[in-house]
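Handover notes (outgoing to incoming on-call)

Open items:
1. Zinc-binding dehydrogenase: sequence verified, structure written out, both below. Nothing else pending on this one.
2. Nothing else urgent.
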Amino acid sequence: MRAALVTGAGQMRVDEVARPQPGPGEILLRLQGCGVCASNLGPWSGPDWMQFPTEPGGLGHEGWGTIAAVGADVAGFSVGDRVAALSQHAYAEFDTVAADMAIRLPAAFGDRPFPGEPLGCAMNIFHRAEIEAGQTVAIVGIGFLGALLTQLAAGAGAQVIAITRRPFALDFARRMGAAETIVMDDNWRILEDVRALTNGRLCERVIEAVGKQWPLDLAGELTAERGRLVIAGYHQDGPRQVNMQMWNWRGLDVVNAHERDPAIYMRGMREAVDAVLSGRLDPDPLYTHTYPLDELGTALDATRDRPDGFMKALVALR
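Zinc-binding dehydrogenase structure tokens:
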């Protein structure tokens, strides 16, 4: 099979390697595609702790496709089933995965892409935010995740204020149901705009979905007394400082909405399937850029640089 390997900082190649075989309790997935995750950008930059080359297909964990073979002791899946999976080598034509780390995709989805892991993350973050009808919810950062959360929060009856730096992303937020949009350019002006929109109350829920220091600072300032600040951004570039005096004074609930328990990941993925089937979630417009496996490096660069019109990159394998 063909599989991508990252060979150094900003460098990759595609090799012909042996196709894996499923062991007991595993399925062999013939991948149709894999989403490109921002968490790949740390390894792609070539930090000292990385070992190159990566394993074939390594870093890819947002894959979906059809089952090509099943190992011993696998129940509930058959060859030909279309599934999304939580595997770790999905930048390749095939990958093995434990059967309990895969979910069957409904026939109603047809051939539409379904990167299950990030869609499940959005559902899990939405649960941790405890958003209710009538609340004002600020979402700081409208990328793929922020746009999905905008749609979920608006669908729950909340008034969503979307805050991001790219005009293109603000347009997307409005399409996803945001009641108000604000350009993320000046901290004081943003705070004053939100005060005006909320009659000085600020926001019961604020979701930070960028993963940088300033958006985290801003998100805290936008959170009302006894409100909930939800950290959804992936803070991967070093320690953070927080205004603990303000957080303490306002009595904020602060939630780090990242999950590591595979069972919770799978629950979120199943709920994402239900949300797409019911129409509560429509991620398809957010898949803005698709690349072949040979151009994984270009896909990673686009995920890093976020050119105009970019929301989410997919690698197409079939």
